[in-house]
Amino acid sequence: MTKKINHIGIAVKSLEASIPFYRDMMGMEFEGTEEVAEQKVKVAFLVVGESRIELLEPTSEDSPVAKFLEKNGEGVHHMAYQVENLEATLADLKAKGVRLIDEVPRSGAHGSRIAFLHPKATGSVLTELCEAGH
Ligand code: CO
Description:
Blueprint (H helix, E strand, L loop, with lengths): L1 E10 L3 H11 L3 E8 L4 E8 L2 E8 L5 H9 L2 E9 L2 H10 L10 E2 L5 E5 L9 E4 L4
Parallel strand pairs: 1-4, 5-8
Antiparallel strand pairs: 1-5, 2-3, 3-4, 6-7, 7-8
The site of cobalt (II) ion has 6 residues, from strand 1 and strand 5.
């Protein structure tokens, strides 16, 4: 079952250049940065109520986020919904015919487990499901 919007992912060229807007202008609590090697990104989290903004900066030219920036420029990259049991949710969606990018959870920031649905199945909105943490 979908619990809440865990975070909204925003692709940026530079965390350093982007954080001040959210932290200093918008007054969001800055939680720090973390490198997610598996996805070739450095991420920064800013708290908004029970959700977060996740800024994503690519760490390599072959990062999916680098490709996104090339194609679209900076902007909203994905929506992340928190679910109770990621494996069971993925199995359920697969059984319902929803196309998945990840059939098996991968590791996200803060030791969370995440999986992406295919944009073809979600009206072109890249959709992440995550289980715990953020
Ligand atoms: Co995310």
